């Protein structure tokens, strides 16, 4: 039992420190693939604290379309725009810092991405291209999303009703 406690303590301690990484690919607005520059492993990172519209036709995309009363192509289009906007901040070869926050439902690393000293997730929310992920939403993210909605930024200008449905 003692070794389990020690392992969990070590794991939580290791997750509190970031690591430098090189961006390999931007999968969509909230998922990237990086190379950990310490271990040289490829890591799929689900961006912590945000949720962008789905870019790929998946069961989640169809559920969201049904929930919001729109065609699946509408969600897909918003997802493509969010993914395109991600390229405003991230590009293959760029060096970023990943701050691990745990592991998600599909075993992907959940992490904050720091690009040029700024929180990428917060930038996407501020620009109106992402919802907060309510399970992990810090107050600053929630406030930024409400401001983006009020100021009709990004996708909030294009499809405010759909964004409201997706984000709340």
Number of domains: 1
Secondary structure category: alpha+beta
Q: Numbering strands along the chain, what is their spatial order in the largest sheet?
A: 1-2-3-6-5
- Total count of helical runs of at least 4 residues: 7
Strand-residue fraction? 25-35%
Largest sheet: 5 strands, mixed, barrel
Q: Helical amount among residues, as a percent range? A: 40-55%
The value of Rg in angstroms is 17 Å
Written account of the structure:
With 168 residues, the chain is an alpha+beta fold. It has one domain (2-167): Beta Barrel (OB fold (Dihydrolipoamide Acetyltransferase, E2P)), CATH 2.40.50. Helices cover 42% and strands 26% of the residues. The chain contains 7 helices and 8 strands, in the order αββββααβββαβααα. It starts with a helix and ends with a helix.
């Amino acid at each position: 039992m003692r070794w389990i406690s020690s392992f969990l303590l070590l794991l939580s301690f290791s997750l509190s420190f970031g690591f430098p990484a090189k961006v390999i690919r931007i999968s969509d607005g909230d998922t990237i693939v990086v190379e950990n520059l310490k271990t040289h492993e490829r890591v799929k990172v689900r961006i912590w604290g945000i949720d962008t519209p789905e870019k790929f036709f998946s069961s989640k995309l169809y559920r969201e379309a049904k929930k919001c009363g729109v065609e699946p192509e509408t969600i897909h289009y918003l997802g493509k725009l969010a993914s395109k906007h991600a390229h405003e901040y991230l590009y293959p070869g760029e060096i970023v810092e990943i701050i691990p926050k745990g592991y998600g439902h599909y075993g992907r690393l959940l992490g904050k991405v720091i690009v040029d000293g700024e929180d990428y997730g917060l930038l996407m929310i501020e620009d109106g291209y992402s919802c907060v992920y309510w399970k992990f939403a810090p107050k600053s993210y929630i406030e930024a999303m409400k401001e983006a909605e009020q100021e009709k930024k990004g996708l909030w200008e294009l499809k405010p009703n759909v964004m409201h449905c997706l984000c709340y």
